[in-house]
Amino acid sequence: MSLIQLKPQTAPAASGKSHLKQATQGHRFDAELVAVTKRYGTGPAAVADISLRIPRGSYCCLLGPSGCGKSTTLRMLAGHEDVSEGAILIHGEEVTHKLPVDRGTSMMFQDYALFPHLSCLDNVAFSLKVRGVATRERRAQARQYLELVQMDHLADRLPNQLSGGQQQRVALARSLITRPKVLLLDEPLSALDPFLRVKMRSELKRIQKELGISFIHVTHSQDEALALSDMIVVMNDAKIMQAAPVREVFETPTNAFVARFLGGQNVLNSNGREVSVRTDRCRLGHATGLRSVEGQIAMIEYQGNIVRITLQTPLGDEMTVLQSDTDYFAQNPQIGDTAMMSWQASDEHILAPT
Amino acid sequence: MKLSPKAVSLLQIAPMGIIFAAMVLVPLVIIFVVSFLDYDFAQVFPEIYLGSWKDVFTSQLTLNLYETTFKFVAIVWVVTFTLGFSIAYFLVFHVRSMQVRLMLLAAIAIPFWTSGPIRAVAWVPLLGREGLVNQALLGLGIVTEPVSWLMYSEFAILIAYIHLLTMPMVITISNSMMKVPRSIIQAAQDAGASEFQIIREIILPLARPGIAIGTIFVVTAVMGDFFIVKTMSGGQVNTATMAIVTELNAFQYPPAAAKSVLMLAIVLGLVAILLRFADIRKELTK
Ligand SMILES: Nc1ncnc2c1ncn2[C@@H]1O[C@H](COP(=O)(O)OP(=O)(O)O)[C@@H](O)[C@H]1O
Ligand SMILES: [Mg+2]
């Protein structure tokens, strides 16, 4: 079976239900949040007045520390949580008060949420069953989706007879068979061991590219967000700090929070302004024409082709230098040494105050 | 002295084993043996007599007793299951706050802190000839004279059973339902299942252990009960268990023993079937 068959755009128009039709050509954004606020009870807002537009066919990661409102945002998109204020659009169509099934979204849950009493095949076929599709046909279709996630050989097993990674694949197939316009994933990889996490991560990206729909993926892992995203949305404290293509977020963080959270940047004061400088553009030692700061070497981590050196400045800030192993062995610094870290003025990126 | 691990575990279970043998197995064997013995109005003879067993399987009178018992079991099960499932569903999936849920559960449970006889007597002012229900019916002009079958009738017995046994159904079923993760329900909603489909396809199968345990509770309670039958029917309705008690009071031990053994076999059979739906050990540890 060719994967092209599964592409939503080429889905047979036989199914008369409008929410199965995919990717109408008229919209520019797969998902939009317009001034969305969510309050639980009377406390401070869990999500405060956020606006976001996710272009067509994007892999978008919502990144932020625990409790910043990522899951709430995702659940509002899914329709599992009421919106206090604002509007939500999917494919340009307002869905703020629609039922989950009428939105064209599908959610993949952190705990997979497979139906424990149904075989993998019947788990995947469930959405067809509730629509009244005959047993043979729905099982045949479900098998195609299990093939997509390479789980067809275990179709008859119950969920608790599968490993975490395998359950995840089944959950993915079960979400995809509803032909969602947008797939929502809440920390899908956090329950997997590191090896599987990296493997599943590339799998998710491959499937997203093949289907051409948008994935909105919640994570608190910077690595994951950088590896997967076309677009990163950094959140903190119920607000969006920055939403931009991955390279833009990494290279030109808007403020110190984004720079620190994404990593790979030193945040420092230069001529009275807060700036960020990429750790791989900083080096140990000093030369004329370079800006520099002095500190004590607190940590040296050898990572094979690069070496990560952490300096503690007299003010207590931590600075990181990423060096090639050649440079490192040439200089051979030791923990406890006093050293200079220097960078070029042109590598400074000015941060907005937070 | 060193004991083999096997001997150690045997020693460890010995106290329980001895108590179980002395208090359960030995009496059961005695009952079983007695059921095959001859008797007259005053004593049991050590002579084989199969009359008690023949009677159990052939006498129309005895068969009617079992029929009444099973009718009660069936009706009470259907009603308590329907009520128990609906109430549990409401408590678990529609009552949002845990506090309200516990308050409502307590409201169901607290009346049962009173003793059985008091609760049985308490039905009289409600269902009796001069009771609240009859007065209301008369007052509304729905009936012209008091309805007599409300109290001291099969209807009264059923009411008392249902009142008593709905709570265990609610508790065991809601216990199972509370273990269903919210995300599973949301996944079913994402798939487009209606509330009714979610109940039928997801919640009902996942609540099966609770239903099975609640059913065991109801079945054994109704089959083993004579007190409610006696008080609520005023002695006008007879069941198999009532007959056993009557025979015991008349010193007719062998037929009582035969009926008891049969009853035990039926109950054990039912429980064995129901346990196929519920892994008790898993229910207790989870
Ligand atoms: N059901 C809820 N009731 C009350 N407060 C909630 C609920 N869900 C989340 N919150 C609060 O909203 C904030 C954001 O939560 P969440 O979106 O889960 O964060 P994240 O997924 O980024 O870790 C947190 O402060 C959390 O305590
Ligand atoms: Mg979360």
From TrEMBL, chain A:
GO terms for cellular component: ATP-binding cassette (ABC) transporter complex. The keyword Cell cycle does not apply. The keyword Transport applies. InterPro entries: AAA+_ATPase, ABC_SmlMolc_Importer, ABC_transporter-like_ATP-bd, ABC_transporter-like_CS, Mo/tungstate-bd_C_term_dom, P-loop_NTPase, Transp-assoc_OB_typ2. GO terms for molecular function: ATP binding; ATP hydrolysis activity; transmembrane transporter activity. GO terms for biological process: quaternary ammonium group transport. Residues 1-22 are annotated as: Disordered. Keywords: ATP-binding, Nucleotide-binding, Transport. This is ATP-binding cassette domain-containing protein. It comes from Pseudooceanicola spongiae. The lineage of its organism: Bacteria, Pseudomonadati, Pseudomonadota, Alphaproteobacteria, Rhodobacterales.
Automatic annotation (TrEMBL), chain B:
GO terms for biological process: transmembrane transport. The keyword Electron transport does not apply. It is a multi-pass membrane protein. The chain crosses the membrane at residues 12-37, 72-92, 104-127, 147-173, 210-229, 256-278. It is found in: Cell membrane. It comes from the Bacteria. Its main location: membrane. Keywords: Cell membrane, Membrane, Transmembrane, Transmembrane helix, Transport. GO terms for cellular component: plasma membrane. Residues 66-274 form the ABC transmembrane type-1 domain. Belongs to the binding-protein-dependent transport system permease family. CysTW subfamily. PANTHER family: INNER MEMBRANE ABC TRANSPORTER PERMEASE PROTEIN YDCU-RELATED, INNER MEMBRANE ABC TRANSPORTER PERMEASE PROTEIN YDCU-RELATED-RELATED. This is ABC transporter permease subunit.
